[in-house]
Model the fold of this input.
Amino acid sequence: MIETDIIIIGAGPCGLFTVFEAGLLKLRCHLIDSLPIPGGQCSEIYPKKPIYDIPGYPSILAGELVDNLMKQIEPFKPGFTLGERVENVEKKEDNTFVVTTNKGTQHAAPVIAIAGGLGCFEPRKPPISNILDFEDRGIDYIIKDPEKFRNKNVVLSGGGDSALDWAIFLAEDLASNVSLVHRRNSFRGHPDSVDKVYKMAKENKINLITDAEVVGLNGNGSLNSIDIKHKSEGLINLNIDYWLPLFGLSPALGPIANWGLNVSKNSIEVDTLDYSTNVPGVFAIGDINTYKGKLKLILCGFHEATLMVQSAFKIIYPDKKLSFKYTTVMGEVKGF
Amino acid sequence: MDENIILIKIIDREDQTHEIEAPTDMNMNLMEICKAYDLPVKGTCGGMAMCASCHCYVESEHEIADASDDEEDMLDQAFFVENNSRLGCQVFMNVKLNGLVVRLAQEND
Done:
């Protein structure tokens, strides 16, 4: 069991900065995020985009902001559970929370800060009505064990690097048959990968089906054929063993919706006094919360984190007095 | 009517048509207009052409600037993409778009 003062769910900019503000009050933090790297949207959606409204930075790339935040919180030695999604939150009799991830990792703390942004990043699933029937029965969104595709008839969909790279990998010496279905005849992946896919298509190692998309799934218990809608040729039916739709990740609120918190329009309602939720000890900060006048800005999330840790301190140390000090007065940031 | 206001029609996913007024002098895009009218458009990425949650179909014959590479790349990750598919966040309101008719695409997340 990982024990800490504040469990922060979500390692985006707001969750990261919470570590700093908590650290100033000598509170320890542990961050959990479903992505394998810290930074949330800043790392996953737009690392190379400049942000112009971070105070003191006329312009900073989202990825740089994350790097800087990681440096800023380093003295406070935060713990990380990355690549795991929080599934369950349980309140014990002594008022501590036990937070369990999908991989079974358990964390305990008297305070939880949900800084979950837009939710967990999950694979984008094509909206085909019976797609759930075939998940793990012929459809994989993430390739964990390429060996299972040996000597199989595999179709991939998507136009980015993961679709291209896996098509090349599987076609080289693993699957018996590899098709790549893409909506247009140009690809956004790395130019080397694109060239290689075209070359392998010429050599009949990859069956390239462009201007097309998968629209139907057929099978009894497991997937055995797909329907492809081609712009000029109409419907094509293909017998296959596996379909791998690789359309990137998108965020969804996920299990957070089931934790007994007041949720409105995919956001958690909070009291602006300290960004507390309706569950004592659970706070929600950053893009995931909502209140009158809410703006989803990183800078607002920083403010919310700062006020939140003051109340967190009172929960963790009900008998201690808290004196507020400017970092400039402290002379230096004293870590743990 | 105010010369900086155009009328556009948004057809939602229940096939309901919403005729709404859109300002052309505030640098607003279609995604932002839809959100301002509480139409069911998420605009997850805030308008950076990086999430495709504002995918829509342009059903009128209006001339709109071609999609950028970024927009095309993002449409690669959307579903049921047609020749008239666009990301709402990349369609900026201007007087030439008066009478624009747009249908919201099925949600993909």
About this structure: The longest helix of chain B spans residues 30-36.
